[in-house]
Each structure stands twice: as C-alpha cells, then as structure tokens.
Amino acid sequence: MTEMLKGIAASDGVAVAKAYLLVEPDLSFETVSVSDTNAEEARLEAALEASQNELSLIRDKAVESLGEEAAAVFDAHLMVLADPEMIGQVKDAIREKQVNAEAALKEVTDMFVALLEGMEDNPYMQERAADIRDVTKRIIANLLGVKLPNPAAINEESVVIANDLTPSDTAQLNKQFVKAFVTNVGGRTSHSAIMARTLEIAAVLGTNDITARVKDGDLVAVNGITGEVIVNPTDDQVAEFKAAGAAYAKQKAEWALLKDAQTVTADGKHFELAANIGTPKDIDGVNDNGAEAVGLYRTEFLYMDSQDFPTEDEQYKAYKAVLEGMNGKPVVVRTMDIGGDKELPYFDLPKEMNPFLGFRALRISISETGDHMFRTQIRALLRASVHGQLRIMFPMVALLKEFRKAKAVFEEEKANLKAEGVAVADDIQVGIMIEIPAAAMLADQFAKEVDFFSIGTNDLIQYTMAADRMNEQVSYLYQPYNPSILRLINNVIKAAHAEGKWAGMCGEMAGDQQAVPLLVGLGLDEFSMSATSVLRTRSLMKTLDTEKMAEYANRAITECATAEEVLELQKEYVHFD
Ligand code: PEP
Ligand code: MG
C-alpha cells in the first residue's frame, strides 16, 4: 500500500530504492528444561558456527570499507566466540541444569559481563564486557533463527530505515549502495544529519514511526530536499521523484562550475566560505567543493572511531594530514567535544539526567579528569602546527575563566614543547565557539582576549530556546531566523569587530540558504558549512548586495517579532531562483 510521510529534510538528494531495516529484532526467549542435552549442545555449536561465519564476513567487509583499524572490534568479537573457558561453561550449564542453550548462554555470559564491568577503573575490561554482550546477542539471534541487521554488508542500492543512526552506524554505511536514510527521530542538526551531508547521502529524519510503516524490501522514495517520503510509490510517483533527482543533479553540475571562483557578492565584497569536517578523509570533499578553509574540524570523531583514547602521535598524524591537505589554507580545529549525544565507550562518564547541560566538551578538558587527555590533544596540535595555518577553538565556553584556563594549558604545552626542542608555529590563533547564550551576551568582554569567534548555532539555538536538538517534538523551536537569535548573532559579530577580531559561524545555519542573506547583512566574516553546501552558497552570494542585505538584517532585528516576519520581509530584498 502506498503511504506518504513527511519528516525533517536533513540532507539534500533524491533516491528511490529498496528499504533496509536497521532495527534491533526481538531477542526474548523463555527458559525451558530439556532432556536431550546432547541435541541442545549441538544447537549451540551450530549457532556458534553461524555467528562465526557472519562475523568473519562483516570483518572482511569492514576492512574493505573502513580499514584494518576500524575492523579490529570484530576481531575482538571473534575472540569471544572462540573462548574455550566461556563456551565450556555454557555447555556445562546445559548439561548440569538441563536448560535450553539460550538460557545457559545468558546465565554464563551475564556472569562474565558482571565480573568485567566490576573492574571499574579498567576501560579495557569494560570494553571486553561490551564485546561479550554484543556477541551474545548474535548467538541468541542464531539460536532463535532471527537475523541481526548489518549495515556494513549492504551490497545493493538501499534506503536505510532506522529509529536513529549512531555516528558509528553512519560511518559504516557504504555510500555506493546506501542512497538515502530515513529515521524516526533526529533533526537537521543531529549528528546523523551532519554526517549524511558530509557523505552526500539524502536523509529525512524525525518521521516518528517510519520503522513501523516499512518492511524490509519495500520500495521507498525519499526527497531529502523537501522531507517527503513515499513507501511503495506508484509508477507515476517513482517517475516524479526520479525527475526531481535529475533536476537536483543538473543544478549541482551548474554550481560545480564555481569551484575555483572567488566568493564575492554582487557589489564585489569577499566572504570566506569554509567547510566543516569530521575526519581527515573529508578533506577531498572540501577541496572538490572549492572551500577556502576548514572552519570546523570536529575532532571528537577521532576519539569515537577509536578503541581507546587516541595517542599524541595518532592525533598528530590526523592533524598534519588535514593541514597538509589544505595546503596552507586556514584550518580551525575544535578541541574534543565529547558529551551530549557523543559518547565514548572507553571513557566512563556518569549517566546524566541532562547530558546536553552536563559535564561535556571543554568542561571535561579543563577538569582534573580530562587534564591528561586535553594536554595530549593540545601537544599533538602544537606539533602539527608547522604543517599549515592552524587555528585552535574551544567548544562550549560559558565563562571567561574557562577560556583562560584552556588558553593557559595551550601556553604551558607550547613552552614545554619548545623546551624539548620541538618546532611550533608562532601565529596560531586561539578562539572560542559561541554556543552558550551567556558567552553571546558577554561577547564584548570575550573579544578582548580571544583571536576569533565561531558561532555554533546548533547549540546556541538549542540553549536559547531551551529545546533539545535531538527531539523532533520540539524541533519547531529550532528557529534560526527568530529575531532573538539574530540579535544574539548581531551582538557577537559587532563585539568581535569592535576589537578588530573576526567572527565566523560553523553551525548549520551558516549553510542555510535563507539565512545567508541575513548573515551577509550582519557582517559575518566566515561561513563554515557542510562541504556540499559551499558551491550553492557561492552561487547565492553572487546575487546579493551587501548594503541592501545590511538594511534587511537591520530591519529584521529591529522591526520583526517572529521568524515568519523575518522571512516575509526577506521577499522585499532577495529573490531565490
Ligand atoms: C554547533 O553547536 O553549532 C556546532 C557547530 O557544534 P556541534 O554541532 O558539533 O555541537
Ligand atoms: Mg556545539
């Protein structure tokens, strides 16, 4: 049956392909007593063998698409399967207690997990516990004859359907086959959306219940520009979506002509168009899309893609690769922003009621717990600084004291490295993200001490509106054009300029075509966005006159009461194609 849904348009692109459901199946079972324990052991053996075959296959695929290092987790899983001590105990339990293999397996593995998790200050053991839990799930699935989803093994054109995609799920998606994804939860600024734009995969998020409406193999049409999704479309609808896909491809080809062009407005003013990246691999996309700088390197992915804290050398290599890849163009590296929706399996942080308001980002870095981790990162950055034009940025700054403490670590480690005879660049700018309203209000004071600001609107809007950026029920409060937000942005830009500093923006708003005219009018110096939005923005800027945009922006912040009024007023000043 044909069904139409509307979600949040999160990543441009149009696709029609078969659904691949990435949802956890029901793995519940009953404990039953068995008399033929030999047959039960044979069931266990068969499930172990099937699990081993699956995992070997997943591992090989992961090596192909992600490399040896990222595939290491599957080696650990294979080792659990082959552990004679644990498997022996499961067989003993089947024989002695005369219970089914599922129950025996669960009892023994629960005991191992509890033992390992009890070693609280040993992250290695914590991880082994997670491995055992994962592998147990797979064996139980095989015992029950249920299939577990495996996104890395997708090998035909698909639309991935999920409740939510974690950054590691998203990283496993092979762009060659995954043409789009659609989720129940999430919004334009959730990390799955940001990742989709980097990978250039169409995405519609926040549909509420797509997982309940689609079956594996259903045909699904997705329009990531409008947010429309059709399950089992008619032939006409398929043709319509394909035509929309072709029109989008044509427009992209036109924008591509601007790759080596200057970013100038109709009256000849230059604005810097930069790109946001998550890993050194993204640099190709940055250069292919003609970005003039990296305005935000989210280094937390370096930590999230790793089995343990990345070492100073590992980090140094990543930062050097990015700086060299940009060939002397500026690179703004943000120190790690763990917390909120970004967790590290090997870093045991207490569960919080409000993780977005909790112990995260710079708050961890300047604490005793995070001191070593932070210094390691700063040293790696300082060592890499000689390979290009490095700028360092601290996330989630609320107080001047926090900035000063972080800057002091930077100065100390710089002095230490110099004393060790290590070369360090002398012109590294050190700035902050403005993503907490307190810092936006006090920007004039911050501007005296920092080298630059980069406005993180994803969080700034979340905190100003008190609306969780992951919760689609309050997504109507994500209002970049609301005059309250525009006034804060204006305050930050003016404060920077009064001290001769520059102000950029690296939140998703910087690449939002309806926001660009306002930001040009407010005098934003640097716009950092998904690399895939750069050329379209360059094309739009050519049509804008800075004086007219300044008048528009000024009227928006002084005369308008709502976001709708701001967009209505825009019609007097801007004509989109
Ligand atoms: C932001 O908050 O706007 C930002 C750019 O950072 P992140 O999306 O990584 O929180
Ligand atoms: Mg942020």
From TrEMBL:
* Gene Ontology cellular component list: cytoplasm
Gene3D superfamilies noted in UniProt: Phosphoenolpyruvate-binding domains (3.20.20.60), Phosphohistidine domain (3.50.30.10), PtsI, HPr-binding domain (1.10.274.10)
Query: Which sites bind Mg(2+)?
Result: 435, 459
Question: Which one of the record's GO molecular function terms can you name?
Answer: phosphoenolpyruvate-protein phosphotransferase activity
Where is the catalytic site?
A: 191, 506
The UniProt record lists the keyword Transferase: yes
- Pfam families assigned: PEP-utilisers_N, PEP-utilizers, PEP-utilizers_C
Q: Which residues bind phosphoenolpyruvate?
A: 298, 334, 458-459, 469
Q: Which residues form a coiled coil?
A: 34-61
UniProt keywords (A-Z) are: Coiled coil, Cytoplasm, Kinase, Magnesium, Metal-binding, Phosphotransferase system, Sugar transport, Transferase, Transport
List, for all copies, the residue spans of the domain called PEP-utilising enzyme C-terminal. 252-545
Where the record annotates domain Phosphotransferase system enzyme I N-terminal, the positions are 6-128
Task: Tell me, in a sentence or two, what this protein's role is.
Answer: General (non sugar-specific) component of the phosphoenolpyruvate-dependent sugar phosphotransferase system (sugar PTS). This major carbohydrate active-transport system catalyzes the phosphorylation of incoming sugar substrates concomitantly with their translocation across the cell membrane. Enzyme I transfers the phosphoryl group from phosphoenolpyruvate (PEP) to the phosphoryl carrier protein (HPr).
Q: Identify the PANTHER family for this entry.
A: PHOSPHOENOLPYRUVATE-PROTEIN PHOSPHOTRANSFERASE
- UniProt subunit comment: Homodimer.
Q: What is the protein's name according to its record? A: Phosphoenolpyruvate-protein phosphotransferase
